[in-house]
Amino acid sequence: MSEHQTILVAGSANLDFVVRAAHVPAAGETVLGRDVRTFAGGKGANQAVAGARAGGVPVRMLLALGEDAAAGVIEQSLSAAGVQMDILREPEIATGSAFVCLTDDAQNAITVAPGANACLAPQHLPSLDGVSHLLLQLETPIETVTAYAGAARAAGVRVVLNAAPARALPPALLDLVDVLIVNEGELAAITGCSGDVGQALARLHVPCVVVTLGARGCVMRNGGQFLLQPGFNISAVDSTAAGDTFCGALVAAFHQGLSLEAALRRASAAAALTCTRLGAQDSVPGRDEVDRFLHEREREAGDAEALAFYCRLNPV
User: For binding substrate, which residues are annotated in this chain's numbering (predicted)?
Assistant: First the structure.
């Protein structure tokens, strides 16, 4: 067995309340929605499920939960995906929740109430023995995220940060990150540069940066090398958790030692499948589904030149 037996996700877990509507309401506007459903969610938990289910690798998760019905829903979802849990229990604080408005064109607007997620502190990080990668997000306190990254760096564990939700990041945290995963808005928040992916990437000194670009695909800068993965052609139903699925599947591919090109393509396929069904963790595909999708789409190369032009990079 490999010395590094698992990946560890440390982060948020929420119960998502999802309402379908024609469009996201503007300030002061009331929109008449349709059905309301609840799903297990939270960026950290979604990514843990994706690593285990879509990536097919052993995953542990550090999370904080209340003692309420929402906690039970989340635990059941993580357990069903095969995720091992290190739970900080907060009996006086509610489990985190998110309120999602999902539009008819598969877009969403999300408001998060952190609840117990805000209680994760530096001393709660479990042993990193046997861990290859630590995957972090920003729905828990930034001081805690920085402390976890520092502990992982000291232990020789690769640090992967999904810098979401968007916010400026302290240089001390960025200096500890091996792989940074962001979308365009998050990239702009970190670098202060919007509308030019190539220029924004040039401002970052993180060794490896991946920028997800929605239906267009994604781009990776690894050192001075750029890799482009155009998006797959799908009929999207719900984009919730697509980015999280990408993150979890990508880190799982890293854990398995896949090439960077194969890792990007596999993560992109998993994210595409997630968009074809409703919900957060409920929408994450299994490893066999990802394998089948990739086999069916092996001739679908996409337009890398158009993607490079959009990112203002030289054609690859």
Answer: 14-16, 42-46, 139, 244
